[in-house]
Design a protein that fits this description.
By secondary structure, the protein is α+β, with helices and mostly antiparallel strands. The protein contains 8 helices and 21 strands. The strands form 7 sheets. Strands 2-8-7-4-5-13 form a 6-stranded mixed sheet, with no helix packed on it. A 4-stranded antiparallel sheet has the order 16-19-18-17, with no helix packed on it. A hairpin with a 4-residue loop joins β20 and β21 (384-387).
Length: 391
């Protein structure tokens, strides 16, 4: 009871804080003049809080590979902390199709370990500072860096500030030698030349994609008062864990936001055979048909949703759509107890009329609703699962 009262008091304290009292990234120096508000709930200003002069360079942040950098903030509305990520994209003016690669994840205690807000001064100090560095697999060049934050207390939101970054090769430039540990079998250190730029580009591609939620993409952080457990597919290897409380995974249609796998080359056509072809030979296989539908659905979806892997898209497509794409496949009945409905936007998360289910619109304008977990309901405005009132 005492814990619940404390949480309620913290929620009230956060709710009366004005929007101007959120925080913004101070270092690295961001583009333009970012405001402290979160991204819009419909994701229309993703990425980097789109606005006039959104990519105006105030200061170019020089970051030698491997050298410590500081992440710091202005403002005091820290919402009990939360989880943050630092990501890079090679795009100097990122848009919804840009690919962001995670170089640092902070689970809990970001931007502060304070239980509520530090104060209400939008230019105040007191947030924690964090150290990070550009990993050696990043090639020298110009990038855009993003700081993203999922607050612990308050509305389910995503904050994002972006900054221009020039990555350099370190004190002895890009051919600086670095060390790494050999395997336990040898038990000694070896030195190697820094990887060439082409190899570094390949290594960067292997980094996880930035986690995205709370912006109308069907994925949401859990209820207020919980700290996000960043999905393993998006976490990376440079991780700081600063919150002693249990981390809670996101809810909704979050899917697999990891780096997409390269497309498989098309298979050559099989030569015609004598005699009547079997049903399997006379039409594409059900797997091929589903893959084709998945690719089209991903293209039609919004950029935030299109980061979902083909596997997620396949699971979201209704059996009716699969049957239409593969004439030879038998019709598959809707699972017992699941509702169905119609929808307008393929790839978009849709709530059932009574809010008890959530599903993804397929290419045929149909949706199968999966039952919302106990204690949650589907918000029809956002298309995400939220905590049910009175629970």
């Amino acid at each position: 009871m005492l814990h619940s009262s404390f949480r309620l008091a913290a929620l009230v304290a956060v709710s009366i804080t004005t929007a101007s009292a959120h925080i913004i990234m101070e270092s690295p120096v961001p583009y333009g003049k970012p405001d402290s508000n979160p991204l819009l709930a419909d994701g229309s200003d993703f990425p980097c809080k789109q606005r006039p002069d959104v990519y105006k360079v105030v200061k170019q942040n020089i970051m030698p590979i491997g050298q410590p950098q500081t992440l710091s903030f202005i403002g005091q509305a820290t919402h009990g902390g939360g989880s943050c990520q630092i990501s890079l994209t090679t795009d100097k003016q990122p848009d919804k199709n840009s690919v962001w690669k995670v170089i640092e994840s902070i689970e809990g205690g970001c931007p502060s370990t304070a239980p509520g807000n530090l104060g209400d001064d939008p230019t105040g100090r007191g947030t924690d500072q964090f150290s990070f560095s550009i990993p050696p697999m990043i090639a020298p060049g110009d990038y855009t860096l993003a700081w993203t934050w999922f607050n612990k207390i308050g509305n389910r939101e995503m904050y994002m500030n972006c900054a221009p970054v020039a990555v350099t090769g370190g004190a002895q430039q890009r051919f600086k030698r670095f060390t790494h540990r050999a395997s336990a079998v040898h038990g000694r250190r070896h030195t190697h030349e820094a990887a060439p730029v082409s190899k570094r580009a390949e290594a960067m591609d292997s980094l996880p994609n930035m986690f995205v939620a709370n912006i109308g993409n069907g994925c949401s952080t859990a209820e207020s008062g919980t700290t996000l457990a960043i999905p393993k597919a998006n976490l990376g290897t440079n991780v700081k864990s600063l919150d002693s409380e249990k981390l809670v995974p996101p809810v909704g249609n979050c899917g697999d936001q990891s780096a997409p796998q390269p497309a498989q080359p098309a298979q050559p056509a099989q030569p015609a055979r004598q005699g009547a072809p079997s049903p399997a030979e006379s039409s594409p296989s059900s797997i091929t048909s589903i893959s084709a539908i998945s690719s089209a659905a991903t293209t039609a979806a919004s950029p935030a949703e299109s980061s979902l892997s083909p596997i997620t898209s396949i699971s979201a497509i209704s059996p009716a759509a699969t049957t239409a794409a593969s004439p030879a496949a038998p019709s598959v009945p809707v699972p017992a107890g699941m509702q169905t409905g119609s929808c307008d936007t393929p790839g978009k998360s849709v709530c059932s009329p009574d809010g008890t289910g959530i599903g993804t619109c397929d290419l045929q304008g149909k949706v199968i609703y999966a039952k919302a977990p106990l204690g949650t309901k589907c918000d029809p405005t956002l298309g995400v699962l939220v905590q049910a009132k009175g629970v």
